[in-house]
């Protein structure tokens, strides 16, 4: 059961990540927006995809608990700040292309996201709440 949930998390994460990478690539490489803005918009799009898929598919969190969405958004704000910082840092240290660095930041964020989704954001709340 735990492996099945983790696989669902990976599928949901892959869908959200693909949306994020496509939006980031379009904004940063085609439209030449600055890294922070392109990254923030891309994460915003993936937040909607990720929240919907994780809530309904991965964790089957049927009750809408207002704090789950707020926590999800706060975690994604952290992800925007962290990943934008890391993309800029690695781009200044090494002349990396931004897309591989973006993929690296997605993998790093996925590690703490799974823990936070499972144990905090989509945990089962008592029925009286």
Largest sheet: none
> Helix count?
4
End-to-end CA span: 26 Å
Class computed from helices, strands and strand pairing: mainly alpha
Name the overall outline. elongated
Fraction in beta strands: under 5%
As a whole number of angstroms, the C-alpha radius of gyration is 15 Å
Low-confidence stretches: none
Provide mean pLDDT, rounded. Answer: 82
**What is the chain-wise order of helices and strands?**
HHHH
Total count of strands: 0
Characteristic terms for this protein:
mainly alpha, 81% helix
Write up what this structure looks like.
The chain has 129 residues and is mainly α. The mean pLDDT is 82. The two termini are 26 Å apart. α3 runs antiparallel to α4. Helix content is 81%, strand content 0%.
Provide a concise account of the structure shown.
This protein is an all-alpha fold and 129 residues long. It has helices at residues 2-30, 35-58, 66-93, 98-121. It is elongated and about 45 Å long.
């Amino acid at each position: 059961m735990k492996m099945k949930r983790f696989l669902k998390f990976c599928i949901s994460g892959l869908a959200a990540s693909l949306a994020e990478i496509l939006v980031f690539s379009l904004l940063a490489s085609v439209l030449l927006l600055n890294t922070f803005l392109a990254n923030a918009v891309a994460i915003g799009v993936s937040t909607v995809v990720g929240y919907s898929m994780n809530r309904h598919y991965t964790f089957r969190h049927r009750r809408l608990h207002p704090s789950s969405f707020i926590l999800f958004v706060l975690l994604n704000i952290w992800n925007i700040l962290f990943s934008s910082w890391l993309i800029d840092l690695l781009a200044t240290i090494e002349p990396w292309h931004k897309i591989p660095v973006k993929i690296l930041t997605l993998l790093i964020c996925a590690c703490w996201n799974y823990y936070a989704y499972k144990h905090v954001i989509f945990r089962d709340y008592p029925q009286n709440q």
